[in-house]
Specification:
alpha+beta, flat, 1 helix, three-stranded antiparallel sheet, 3 strands
């Protein structure tokens, strides 16, 4: 079963410059630089997620960045990170 996660990204004003998309038109998401990522919901269809976007565009905070929504699909009941992960830099790696 596939579900659709809906996110909104509030971009931090970096000295008068707010970048919403990269040069290819992809939505920028940089929490390490201060962008705030919110999950607005999890929906059974992309149409329900899109309807939520339309409702959110009329709400304070979201209306400031009306094109900064992201719908991402996710498969339910599927393992993630099955092989683990590595944390750290080259000098301090833990598994």
């Amino acid at each position: 079963m596939k579900v659709f996660l809906l996110f909104h990204i509030s971009h931090l004003d970096r000295h008068g410059l707010i970048e919403h998309r990269d040069r290819w038109g992809e939505l920028l998401i940089e929490p390490e630089l201060g962008d705030d990522v919110k999950i607005l919901g999890c929906y059974s269809t992309v149409e329900l997620a899109e309807a939520r976007i339309e409702r959110a565009r009329n709400i304070p905070g979201f209306w400031n960045e009306p094109e900064c929504f992201l719908i991402s699909h996710y498969e339910m009941d599927a393992d993630r990170w099955a092989d683990g992960f590595v944390v750290g830099d080259d000098d301090n790696v833990s598994q």
